[in-house]
C-alpha cells in the first residue's frame, strides 16, 4: 500500500472489533458488561410501530432530549444525544481548541476509548495511576499543567467497578482551572448503590463539566448505540455543531425514549444485578478468590498468573469473559453479572477449571 497513514493512527494498537461468537446457541457472553435481558416490552412495541417509517430521516431527537432533561430536572438545551457515549467523547475532543493545550489526562486503567480517541484527534495522553483500584482524584490533579485541556473521569471505573465519592469530587471540581473540561463518564451510574456516589449533574451550570450516561447498559440497548451528555447550554451547543447529521438512527431514538419511561423494567434489571452480585461474592469467597467489590454490573476477579489461559479454556466451553492484560492487570479477569442461570454456569465452569 502506498498511502501514507498518520503516525498518531499507526501508534494505536489494532484490535479487530468483530466477534466470531455470541448469537449462536450455547454461548455465554459475560465479557462486555451488557444487560443480559432483552429490551422491555414497551421498547419492542415502540420499535415495531416505527418500522414502516424507516424511509424517513430520523426525527424524535428533541423528544428524547426533553424526556432525558425531565428525568434529571434540566432543560432540553442542557442535553446532547450521541451515537453511544463514544460519539460524545469525540465531540468534546473535536470542539475544543488546543492552542497549546493538547494534553488529555486519564486514569490508568480506565475505559480504553478515551486514549484511542484522544490520539486520533492529536492529543497527548497523560495517565494517572489508580489507588486501591479507585480513581485517584489527587493523582489526576497533580498531572495538570498549562497544557491540560480535558480530564476524563470514569465513575464507576471500568474495569474495577469502584467509585470515587461526592465529597472528593466537590473538592476536585472546585480546584480545576476553568480552561479545562471535565468529562465525567457515568455509564454504569444506574447500578450504583453507594449513597455517596457524586451528584455531578448539580455542577454543570457553574463549572466546565459534562456528565455522560448511556442506554447501552441498564436499559438494554447496547446494539442501538444511544448515549447522552448533560452540560451547560452554550457548551452543549458548541459540541453539537461538531456532530454528524442524523448520527443517531430513528429506531434508536424511539427505543431510548421508551426505555427511559419504563421504570418497572429498570428496577427489575437492577434487582437482578443486586442478586447476581451477592451470588458472585459468596461463590468467590467459598473458592478463596480475591475480587473487587463493585458498584457496576461487572466484577474484577483475581485468578493469578494463569488468568489468560483460564479465559481461553472458558472460551472453549463457550463461556466468554475478559482477560485484563490489556488493562495492565495480568492476574485478573472481568466478568459481567448475568442472569442467575448464567452466573451459575460461569461459576460451575470456573470451579471445574480451578
Cα gyration radius (Å): 20 Å
- For the terminal residues, how far apart are their CA atoms? 47 Å
User: Into which percent range does the helicity of residues fall?
Assistant: 25-40%
The helix tally amounts to 12
Indicate the mean pLDDT: 93
**Global structural class:** alpha/beta
Main beta sheet: strand number and arrangement? 7 strands, mixed
**Uncertain runs:** none
Q: Bin the strand percentage.
A: 15-25%
What is the total tally of β strands? 13
* Basic shape: globular
Q: What is the string of SSEs from the N terminus onward?
A: HEHHEHEHEHEHEEEHHHEEHEEEH
Brief sketch in words of this structure:
The protein has 12 helices and 13 strands. With 354 residues, the chain is an alpha/beta fold.
Helix-strand layout with pairing:
Layout: H1 7-10, E1 28-29, H2 41-50, H3 61-72, E2 79-82, H4 84-95, E3 103-108, H5 113-120, E4 124-129, H6 137-142, E5 148-154, H7 166-173, E6 181-185, E7 209-214, E8 227-230, H8 233-240, H9 250-260, H10 263-286, E9 290-292, E10 298-302, H11 307-316, E11 319-320, E12 322-323, E13 332-336, H12 340-353
Parallel strand pairs: 1-11, 3-4, 3-5, 5-6, 6-7
Antiparallel strand pairs: 2-8, 7-8, 9-10, 10-13, 12-13
Helix pairs in contact: 2-9, 3-9, 4-5
Amino acid at each position: 500500500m502506498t498511502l501514507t497513514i498518520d503516525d498518531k493512527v499507526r501508534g494505536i494498537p489494532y484490535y479487530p472489533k468483530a466477534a466470531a461468537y455470541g448469537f449462536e446457541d450455547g454461548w455465554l457472553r459475560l465479557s462486555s458488561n451488557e444487560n443480559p435481558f432483552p429490551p422491555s416490552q414497551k421498547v419492542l412495541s415502540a420499535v415495531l410501530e416505527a418500522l414502516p417509517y424507516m424511509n424517513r430521516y430520523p426525527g424524535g431527537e428533541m423528544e428524547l432530549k426533553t424526556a432525558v432533561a425531565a428525568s434529571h430536572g434540566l432543560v432540553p438545551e442542557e442535553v446532547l444525544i450521541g451515537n453511544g457515549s463514544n460519539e460524545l467523547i469525540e465531540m468534546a475532543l473535536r470542539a475544543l481548541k488546543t492552542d497549546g493545550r493538547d494534553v488529555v489526562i486519564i486514569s490508568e486503567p480506565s475505559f480504553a476509548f478515551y486514549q484511542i480517541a484522544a490520539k486520533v484527534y492529536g492529543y497527548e495522553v497523560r495517565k494517572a495511576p489508580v489507588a486501591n483500584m479507585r480513581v485517584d482524584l489527587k493523582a489526576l490533579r497533580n498531572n495538570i499543567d498549562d497544557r491540560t485541556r480535558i480530564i476524563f473521569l470514569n465513575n464507576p471505573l471500568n474495569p474495577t467497578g469502584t467509585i470515587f465519592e461526592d465529597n472528593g469530587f466537590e473538592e476536585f471540581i472546585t480546584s480545576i482551572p476553568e480552561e479545562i473540561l471535565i468529562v465525567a463518564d457515568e455509564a454504569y451510574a444506574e447500578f450504583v448503590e453507594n449513597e455517596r456516589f457524586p451528584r455531578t449533574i448539580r455542577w454543570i451550570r457553574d463549572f466546565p463539566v459534562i456528565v455522560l450516561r448511556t442506554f447501552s447498559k441498564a436499559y438494554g440497548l447496547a446494539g442501538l448505540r444511544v448515549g447522552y451528555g448533560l452540560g451547560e447550554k452554550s457548551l452543549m451547543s458548541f459540541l453539537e455543531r461538531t456532530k454528524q447529521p442524523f448520527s443517531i438512527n430513528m429506531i434508536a431514538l424511539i427505543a431510548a425514549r421508551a426505555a427511559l419511561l419504563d421504570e418497572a423494567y429498570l428496577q427489575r434489571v437492577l434487582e437482578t444485578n443486586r442478586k447476581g452480585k451477592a451470588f458472585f461474592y459468596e461463590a468467590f469467597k467459598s473458592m478463596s478468590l480475591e475480587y473487587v467489590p463493585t458498584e457496576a454490573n461487572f466484577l474484577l476477579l483475581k485468578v493469578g498468573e494463569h488468568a489468560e489461559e483460564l479465559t481461553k479454556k472458558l472460551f472453549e466451553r463457550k463461556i466468554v469473559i475478559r482477560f485484563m492484560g490489556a488493562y495492565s492487570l495480568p492476574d485478573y479477569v472481568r466478568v459481567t453479572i448475568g442472569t442467575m442461570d448464567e452466573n451459575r454456569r460461569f461459576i460451575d465452569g470456573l470451579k471445574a477449571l480451578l
